[in-house]
Amino acid sequence: MNTAIASRYTAEYQTIASSLPGQTLPWLRALRAEALAQFAEQGFPSPREEEWRYTNVSGIEKKLFAPSADITVGDINTDWLKSYQIENAWVLVLVNGHFSAEFSVLTDLPEAVSVMSMADALAKQPAQVEKYLGLAASQSEHGFIAFNTAWFSDGLFVHVPSKLVLDRPIQLLHIVTGDDAMATTRNIIIADEMAEAKVIETFVGNDSAYLTASVTEVFVGQNADLTLYKMQSESEKAYHFGGSYIKQARDARFTHHNFAFGGLLARSDIHADLDHASECELNGLYLGIKRQHIDNHTRINHLKPYAISRELYKGVLDDRARGVFQGRVIVAIDAQKTDSQMNNRNLLLSDDAEADTKPQLEIYADDVKCGHGVTVGQLDEKSIFYLQSRCVDEETARNMLTFAFANEMVDKVKIRGLHDMILEQLLTRFPQEGVNKEWL
Amino acid sequence: MLSIKDLTVNVNDKQILKGINLEIKAGEIHAIMGPNGSGKSTLSHVLSGKAGYTVTGGTATYQGKDLLEMAPEIRAREGVFLAFQYPVEIPGVSNIYLLKAALNSIRKHNGQPEVDAMDFLTLVKEKVRLLEMDEKFLYRAVNEGFSGGEKKRNEILQMAILEPKLCIMDETDSGLDIDALKIVAEGVNSLRSPERSFVMVTHYQRLLDYIKPDFVHVLAHGQIVKSGGPELALELEEKGYNWVEDNQAAA
What we know:
The complex is a heterodimer.
Chain A: H1 2-16, H2 26-42, H3 58-61, E1 66-67, H4 78-82, E2 90-95, E3 98-105, E4 114-117, H5 118-124, H6 126-132, H7 143-151, E5 156-160, E6 170-176, E7 181-191, E8 196-205, E9 211-220, E10 225-233, E11 239-248, E12 253-260, E13 265-274, E14 279-288, E15 293-302, E16 308-317, E17 322-331, E18 339-348, E19 354-363, E20 369-377, H8 381-388, H9 394-410, H10 416-427
Parallel strand pairs in A: 1-7, 2-6, 5-7, 6-8, 7-9, 8-10, 9-11, 10-12, 11-13, 12-14, 13-15, 14-16, 15-17, 16-18, 17-19, 18-20
Antiparallel strand pairs in A: 2-3, 4-5
Helix pairs in contact in A: 1-2, 2-7, 5-6, 8-9, 9-10
Chain B: E1 2-11, E2 14-24, E3 29-33, H1 40-48, E4 54-62, E5 65-66, H2 72-77, E6 80-83, E7 90-94, H3 95-109, H4 117-130, E8 141-142, H5 148-162, E9 166-170, H6 178-191, E10 197-202, H7 207-210, E11 215-220, E12 223-228, H8 231-239, H9 241-250
Parallel strand pairs in B: 3-10, 3-11, 6-9, 9-10
Antiparallel strand pairs in B: 1-2, 1-4, 4-5, 7-8, 11-12
Helix pairs in contact in B: 5-6
């Protein structure tokens, strides 16, 4: 089955290969060819693979998504598009996987900083791209990564040189329009020694059944500090794969905020490799309604001593939605004094909603502090009574508490414009009388 | 204000309250004292409508209405306020949001429009100053990470803003050091009025050093075994609960 799908895509590939960026670069041509062969062999991941056991992507396999060269925004209203642009950010817009200069805002960048499309980076600084592409995301991991390497049509390239602190965030706004369209994008974010930056990935689309397949590789240099935000608000018919693969150098700090709201089927990978005394914080919020399937797969690799990792993922699942959390923490034999804490909490709002949670600790060192906690449940009755005793009726109390449960994660976002946008998304899930936004 | 007659209550088929009779008039402060397990907390929970208690007999009439028939939020909107022994932490909901939601629920219940945002802020800030609290408290999540004293002060702040008619204080002094206790007591005293009544449920007499009750009732084994003036609390402090329990046994 998988191989048949793969060969359909492989055949299709030949027709567009020449239009892909960087095809004049022999190393990239070779890398893409290798990835294509890998994908032909792997196909898309299957639930038989342990890392995909709760997520069946056969819905993707039933369709043949095609790359779209259309970078007009189709029926998307530009006001709508602008509503997703973060104020005061440098914004790089990708429409159907291609850079849109029209909607991007890349003026006034500090001279030493690179923020450009991947196609641009391949044209202007191919050696930099060659050095990093594929370094954090392993092709053999699963079919989506190989697929992405073979097909990527563009992406975001960010390089912040050492000791530079960016005072404005960088936003990637990823838009897909049209049924059966696919957007395959590859991003590289590099923060050199002691640099500081905040990067936002925003995934949106019009109301159609498309596929997003995005891979982001992140390199946080020694003592650098990088925060990556992801807000996925894809169409309710869309398929989303978005992987972030992070390499942290000694003393590097990395924080990830993952807001998974949209998509019929959405999967995020967040995999980080931690060097000596580095710090990694992973936060996540997934909201599922109707028949949504939202999968979050995190892996934190403590490779060296003294690194700290903190992870908190929260899910709110209603109707027949299904949420998946697989969190792996691996502590290598050399990684003594590792300090790691992983938590996953789920609220089930309906009898038909489902949460699958699988925290995994694999500890090979003997002097470490590692913990994990998981809850799947309903709202706390004590809290409901407390609110009732403060004049709030039971249904409103339930709405308030559900909102509060989720809002704790939104409150961690310190970029005002992004915070408000995510809050707005969250509020659409609640009736006005449940959560009065004028009072927030 | 509140008239309780022959109230009997079961928890898990076990009778906890065995016929309570209590008359509380407007403006009065009643202290209900008793040893652990006497049914003090059950009484305050039943009056505020907490689930898990079965009323098997008797009545509680509040301002001429059947209190026990009302949902907890209706009791609250009608002016019954329970100050919790252990106020609940609600991460993600700010104090000011809860205060606004509560106040507007009362206003809606009384057929009044929503409170004006500026008026509300003025009101809240005035009360915050009165209770010597930091304004930052308003924007923090409800009780989250608050010390014991801060939580109790927050209960009093809510009380000051919602202006209830009947305040039920459940073990307000528990977990408070003497300074926090004084601040809380001052807050309560400042809320005393001829229209407002208080029921103070407490194990120890020390709270009553700071909030002078009009009446003291001793609860033992689910019944009020002795009632009197403030001097009864001092007598209890001196002689211990065994004194009334022994009297009851003798009777």
